[in-house]
Amino acid sequence: MNAAADPALFAPDDAADPNEPDRTLAANAAPAGRWTHQHLLDVDVLTTDDLDLIMQTTATMAQVLTRPIPKVPALRGWGVTILFYEASTRTRVSFEVAAKNLSADVVNIAAASSSVSKGESLIDTIRTVEALGARMLVLRHATSGAPYLAAEHFSGSVLNGGDGWHAHPTQALLDLYTLRTRLPGGIVAGRKVVILGDVMHSRVARSNLWSLTAAGADVWLCGPATLLRGFDAWAAAGVAGSRRFTVTSDLPAALRDADVVMALRIQRERMASGLLPSLREYAARFGLTRERMALARPDALVMHPGPMNEGVEIAPDVATGRQSVITEQVANGVAVRMAVLYLLAGARDSAATRESAATRESAGARDSAGARDSAGARDSAGRAAAE
Questions:
Q1: Is the peptide bond before 307 cis (omega within 30 degrees of 0)?
Q2: Which of 104, 132, 279, 309 is packed most tightly, with the most Cβ within 10 A?
């Protein structure tokens, strides 16, 4: 059965026996063979089928969110720890809401108020939260690659909530879902999607390159040349060695006939000196204004991963205008994160079920062999006594 259409998922939270969390999860788990990933560290490992399954499951979760009580028991009994080493509102809160909507037991840790401030290492913190019952870990870290290190030391599932300049997989997934729900016919392939701004420091841009090119979009990266460093070489090689995209500092060329324009925040906390003369000059040359949006298609969508510096990378009237889907991105983030948590839990449960079945089969084989050997020994002893 397709996990996205599993009727068991639609059971209200109070319909399940709270004393049987494993049975509840098994009823809702993703089918074996469809979703096999233990972790979600970036979108680069996801196949087209994986992306389609996430989108389908997200649509189901979006329906759940329309209920008066938007809650299902799929993760009842599961410990989900949200560990953020960087400040966040949208990602942290949406993961917490998503996990609670799935009835998980949620622990939210801000590194600044934890033992990290006393010098505890990432690995020690991971071991601690696992010892306290975490089966899923949502991690945001300023160092690129930190979630990969966590995955090596955590026996459950690790979800990357954003690491350094490297990746932000759930943001890319919610962006893709938003486009599929808003573009005519839900078709992303062939659409011109412009990612505008501080590309060099953006984990969102990097993950979106993987997901949007996989969906067939015509992706353009645009911004000051100092904020596009390294992307020309990647464009020449292609995403996954074949999927091309365009890199340019020519803003009118990028915006002309665009179907989607995604503005990126100017990340002051990551900005090395000398990359921009000033924020005022950036706004004057690359800020997304209503006049510049006129170059795009009349029905072009405006996106932003947030938080926004209004008046710098995007004008206030564009951020809140009729073409903006920025608040929809935030809302869709809950459904997408519910879908990812659900699929990862189903894969873990299926793996545990298969391992348990294999163990029982092996034990049964040993018992049968032992019984045969014992019976044979008794028969031999009986014949010897008779002789």
A1: yes
A2: 104
Q: Domains of the chain, with CATH numbers? A: 3-167+332-350 (3.40.50.1370), 169-327 (3.40.50.1370)
User: Cα(192)–Cα(25) distance, rounded to whole angstroms?
Assistant: 40
For the chain, give the number of residues.
Answer: 387
Task: Give the neighbor-by-neighbor strand order of the sheet with 136-141.
Answer: 105-110, 79-84, 136-141, 157-163
- End-to-end CA gap in the chain: 62
Strands 105-110 and 136-141: unpaired
Q: What is the pLDDT of residues 185-211, one digit of tens each?
A: 999 999 999 999 999 999 999 999 999
The pTM of the full predicted model, rounded to 2 decimals, is 0.85
Distance CA 224, CA 319 (A): 21
Closest among 242, 229, 245 to 192, alpha carbons compared: 245
d(CA 24, CA 74): 6
